[in-house]
């Protein structure tokens, strides 16, 4: 059964890779092109989009154009929901791939060594994943693979990923919709989002909500 699941996953990733290669990797950066493709899928558009979103995470392809296109085609709310479903599934698959294959195989595949807090406690890892999902400058995909190489439970990883990515995903989905109806508003929203998520770590350190910063630092010192 495990081999069958692994084969299905390999076929799925291979199919998505072939589609990306045939259309050119640059197509993943073209918002108008992505939007046109999704609109041409008809009733199957939500399902196929979710599959593409999963593949984007596993294959470490750019996610922002896809999230913005989803907001344009499906609307800000549904676009955000579909993006969250696909991204969460992709993150879990990446996590399980790393957990199954181990550090050596993942390093060869990604062509880089991911050092991700091997000795951290479960709660500490949950905090780290949650904060990483809030910050757009941290690679979503590398964090997923890196977490799979730790002792973190898949339940904690799934919850931290889900809660952490919701704000930014919906912001991008709304911004994508407004690109066509109000470009100026989209630009303003994008700037606000970037400023907000750069300031989140500073706010957590200074305000220490629910003692979060103190708990993280105590656990780091205990290691």
Automatic annotation (TrEMBL):
It is found in: Cell membrane. Signal peptide: none annotated. The chain crosses the membrane at residues 36-61, 73-98, 125-145, 157-176, 182-204. The keyword Transmembrane applies. It comes from the Bacteria. InterPro entries: TMEM64, VTT_dom. Pfam families: VTT_dom (PF09335). The keyword Cell membrane applies. Residues 61-177 form the VTT domain. GO terms for cellular component: plasma membrane. Keywords: Cell membrane, Membrane, Transmembrane, Transmembrane helix. It is a multi-pass membrane protein. Belongs to the TVP38/TMEM64 family. This is TVP38/TMEM64 family membrane protein.
């Amino acid at each position: 059964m495990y081999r069958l699941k692994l084969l299905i996953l390999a076929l799925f990733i291979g199919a998505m890779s072939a589609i990306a290669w045939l259309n050119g990797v640059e197509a993943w950066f073209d918002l108008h092109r992505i939007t046109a493709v999704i609109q041409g899928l008809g009733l199957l558009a939500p399902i196929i989009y979710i599959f593409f979103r999963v593949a984007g995470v596993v294959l470490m392809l750019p996610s922002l154009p896809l999230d913005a296109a989803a907001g344009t085609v499906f609307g800000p709310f549904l676009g955000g929901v579909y993006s969250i479903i696909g991204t969460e599934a992709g993150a879990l698959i990446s996590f399980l791939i790393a957990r199954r294959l181990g550090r050596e195989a993942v390093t060869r595949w990604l062509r880089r060594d991911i050092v991700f807090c091997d000795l951290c406690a479960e709660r500490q890892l949950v905090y780290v994943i949650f904060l990483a999902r809030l910050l757009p400058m941290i690679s979503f995909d590398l964090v997923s693979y890196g977490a799979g190489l730790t002792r973190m439970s898949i339940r904690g990883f799934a919850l931290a990923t889900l809660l952490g990515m919701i704000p930014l995903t919906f912001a991008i989905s709304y911004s994508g919709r407004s690109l066509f109806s109000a470009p100026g508003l989209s630009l303003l929203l994008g700037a606000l989002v970037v400023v907000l998520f750069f300031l989140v770590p500073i706010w957590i350190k200074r305000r220490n909500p629910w003692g979060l910063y103190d708990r993280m630092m105590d656990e780091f010192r205990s290691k």
